[in-house]
Known about the structure:
single chain, mainly alpha, 3 helices
Amino acid sequence: MIQCPGCGVKLPNRHLDPPDRANASGECIQLYPDLRCYPVAKQDPGFIHQHMVDTCAAQHGGGPTRPITESP
Ligand SMILES: [Zn+2]
């Protein structure tokens, strides 16, 4: 298992390189596309996509993460 340095989630270690622009494990950042697709699949106009992006960025703050970001 590998623990993401940003959000702390523990995932099976696939020995992926961490991203250059986010304080995250490679395994965690691989889940981001699925997370981005979730609100589209849900088709809920009340769900604001930017909230999901901001939450993910806040969870992975520090290290190489920029203070203002659009996605990790
Ligand atoms: Zn993470």
